[in-house]
UniProtKB/TrEMBL annotation:
Protein's cellular compartments: Membrane
Primary location group: membrane
Entries under CDD domains matching the protein: MATE_eukaryotic
Provenance organism: Liquidambar formosana
Superkingdom as given in the UniProt entry: Eukaryota
Gene Ontology cellular-component annotations: membrane
Record GO terms (molecular function): antiporter activity; xenobiotic transmembrane transporter activity
Official protein name in the record: Protein DETOXIFICATION
Length: 486
């Protein structure tokens, strides 16, 4: 009797322990799936961004005008182009992820080819921005000296912009299958070669800016060539069955999803670029641009981590939607947001601890170092927000909400954040600090809205929408071997 009573008393505790064990096991399994995508994505993005940072370090030691010109080109023209092309590729990420989860493997190769066709057309429209960059930048308020150097740099950037057509689409195609380790190794190789080539071309051969840009071009195309060899050589036997005429059919849905995806991400990336552009119209513009550029580079490193988690969130959400598991979707979102936030808090603490000395990585200027230290508090808040917001954007990409998020971005960024920043910067005389504070406010509002949308979403309904999308496109482009599933 006494033994039975003891057993009954122990039963709730044992059930609770079982539930904890199950939760711990689910958390471990989900974390492994998360890091299989996130770790290679983070490392490859850090390597890619590292190519720019190495370039900036070499050019920054050539001269402050050259450094400011590179910052203007990258943060205005290149980031604008990246926003469009990377955003358009996120439409491919939605389609490939959901098709892979639904085991419609043959569709991934067709989606990839359709994206190449669509993005090539849009890239042609971007080229004039780089050819005529000098008058465009002068019209936007930049000095003639900086605009002239920026024009030389922007012409070197044209082959790199063309490379983005393949870079981002191949990345989305491979990571939907959790095969992005090949990208990691290739981008790491490109990073090492870029550093070595810059040292040879700039320090030893004295080619200056031309040497840095030549090395950047080589580093941009090496990973693409490697990925194409991997895919065409049999690395993706289920999803790549060769070039298909089906790639030329049903392009309009791809265009719509790609454009809405491009608008969504472009609005986010261009929002930060405006900070550099508006700073160029202030007094002591060169020092302000360089200081802000250092802060945005630090933020860029953290964004590479967040974009890795964005990729993981997108892949996990799209895969589980394709499989038809709404509970797994919600659990995946919780795990990836908490993981990214934890890393964001750690980086925030490190930046504040080393705020007095961190700028010397990029510039020898004492004035720039003081300006960076002065902006460090705002940088810290930006790091915290950017550990959450991109991940929620990844959830949106995985679910195919790009059009909705584009409207949210317009309202939060351009109708709230930007006007508030201009008010604080120019009317309240807070200069670059005021502009940045206003823009942080816009990002905060956007993050809160995305949290609310994600929380209130009916994920069972999203499963039905994903199934309908995959089934419809699979019917429109049947497997040429006559088998619709692997």
């Amino acid at each position: 009797m006494e033994r039975d009573a003891s057993a009954k008393l122990l039963l709730p505790d044992s059930n609770g322990a079982e539930e904890e064990d199950k939760l711990a096991k689910r958390l471990w399994v989900e974390s492994k799936k998360l890091w299989v995508v996130a770790a290679p994505a983070i490392f490859s993005r850090i390597s890619s961004f590292g190519i720019f940072v190495i370039s900036q370090a070499f050019i920054g030691h050539i001269g402050t005008t050259e450094m400011a010109a590179l910052s203007i080109v990258f943060h205005v023209l290149v980031r604008f182009s990246i926003g469009i092309l990377m955003g358009m590729s996120s439409g491919l990420e939605t389609l490939c992820g959901q098709a892979f989860g639904a085991k419609q493997y043959h569709m991934l190769g067709i989606y990839l080819q359709r994206s190449w066709l669509v993005e090539t057309s849009f890239t042609v429209l971007l080229i004039p921005l780089f050819v005529f960059s000098s008058p465009i930048l002068q019209f936007l308020g930049q000095t003639k000296e900086i605009s002239s150097v920026a024009n030389t740099i922007s012409l070197w950037y044209i082959p790199i912009i063309v490379s983005y057509i393949f870079s981002y689409t191949l990345q989305m195609y491979l990571q939907a299958q959790s095969k992005n380790m090949i990208i990691t190794w290739l981008t790491a190789l490109a990073l090492v070669l870029h550093g070595f080539c810059c040292w040879i071309l700039v320090e030893n051969m004295g080619l200056g800016v031309a040497g840095v840009m030549l090395s950047m071009n080589l580093a941009s195309w090496i990973p693409i060539i490697g990925q194409l060899i991997f895919i065409f050589g049999g690395g993706c036997p289920l999803t790549w069955t060769g070039f298909s005429f089906n790639a030329f059919t049903d392009l309009w849905p791809v265009i719509k999803l790609s454009v809405s995806s491009g608008v969504m991400l472009c609005l986010e990336i261009w929002y930060n670029s405006l900070l550099i552009l508006l700073t160029g119209n202030m007094k002591n513009a060169e020092i302000e641009i360089n200081a802000l550029s250092v802060c945005l580079n630090i933020n860029g490193w953290e964004l590479m981590l967040s974009f890795g988690f964005l990729a993981a969130a997108s892949v996990r959400v799209s895969n589980e939607l394709g499989r038809g598991s709404s509970k797994a979707v919600k659990f995946s979102i919780t795990v990836v947001v908490l993981t990214s936030l934890t890393i964001g808090v750690l980086l925030w603490a490190l930046v504040l601890a080393f705020r007095q000395s961190i700028s010397y990585i990029f510039s020898n200027s004492i004035e720039v170092a003081h300006a960076v230290a002065d902006l460090s508090i705002l940088l810290g808040f930006t790091l915290l927000l950017n550990s959450i917001q991109p991940v929620l954007s990844g959830v949106a990409v995985g679910a195919g909400w790009q059009s909705t998020v584009a409207y949210i971005n317009i309202i939060c960024y351009y109708l709230i954040g930007l006007p508030f920043g201009l008010l604080l910067g120019y009317v309240a005389k807070l200069t670059v600090k005021g502009i940045w504070m206003g823009m942080i406010g816009g990002t905060l509002v956007q993050t809160i809205v995305l949290i609310y949308c994600t929380w209130k979403t009916n994920w069972d309904k999203q499963v039905s929408i994903a199934k309908a999308r995959v089934n419809r496109w699979a019917i429109d482009a049947p497997n040429e071997s006559g088998n619709n599933s692997a």
